[in-house]
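Exercise 7.
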Amino acid sequence: GLSGYIKVVKLPDLEKMLIRLAETLDLNGAINVQLRIDDNGPSIFEINPRFSSTVMMRHQVGFKDLVWAINARQNHTIPDHTPAYGTEVYRLSREVINRGL
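Solution. The predicted structure, written as tokens, is:
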């Protein structure tokens, strides 16, 4: 499906899990981790070697994944980022018609 909404939240258990995953994979690049969170905590069910379809939504809240990846490839320093927890982003769509007027 297509994500239409994100909310920036602080989930320390999830953050630890994803850092452990990145270290285990010796990650050098982007991955998109699909997961569910229930009463037992986060559970990963799919990992894709690509940026998320939410890359622009994430960019809007300061997670500049694509910019950071380009900078990393050029050996530039990647800044620390602390997001504004509670921020929400909604994806909207619309049709645009150009009738040649």
